[in-house]
From TrEMBL:
<dbReference type="InterPro" id="IPR021109">
    <property type="entry name" value="Peptidase_aspartic_dom_sf"/>
</dbReference>
<protein>
    <recommendedName>
        <fullName>Aspartic peptidase domain containing protein</fullName>
    </recommendedName>
</protein>
Length: 115
């Protein structure tokens, strides 16, 4: 049923929604090439989180173009993925970045491994 709109062969990205408490976060990119989980600052603010909730993050992020970006900080959130009765909930450590994106968050290898 999930693949009913997919035309094969395809190379579409996988975009899902996750739950943080009672908040649904849409447009979450699943990226098995990402070594970190990312939460974009616009989504961070819309979730009602505050900058004083962030822990320091000292290392910059590097993209495939070689550009670097310094995270604002990191935050650990309990996220749930799936629909009842198949739901997995795990603590996820996100790096919060302030840059434009079509997505609200990126789930990378750390969370994919735990799920």
């Amino acid at each position: 049923q999930d693949a009913r709109e997919v035309h094969y062969p395809h190379n579409d990205v996988l975009v899902v929604k996750i739950n943080y408490g009672s908040t649904q976060l849409w447009r979450v990119l699943v990226d098995n090439g990402s070594a970190v989980d990312i939460l974009y600052f616009d989504a961070f603010k819309k979730m009602g989180l505050h900058e004083n909730d962030l822990k320091p993050a000292a290392a910059p992020l590097y993209g495939f173009t070689g550009d670097s970006l310094m995270p604002m900080g990191m935050i650990e959130l309990m996220v749930s993925v799936g629909t009842f009765p198949r739901v997995s909930s795990i603590m996820t450590q996100f790096l919060v970045v302030d840059c434009p994106s079509a997505f609200n968050a990126v789930l990378g290898r750390p969370t994919l491994r735990e799920l």
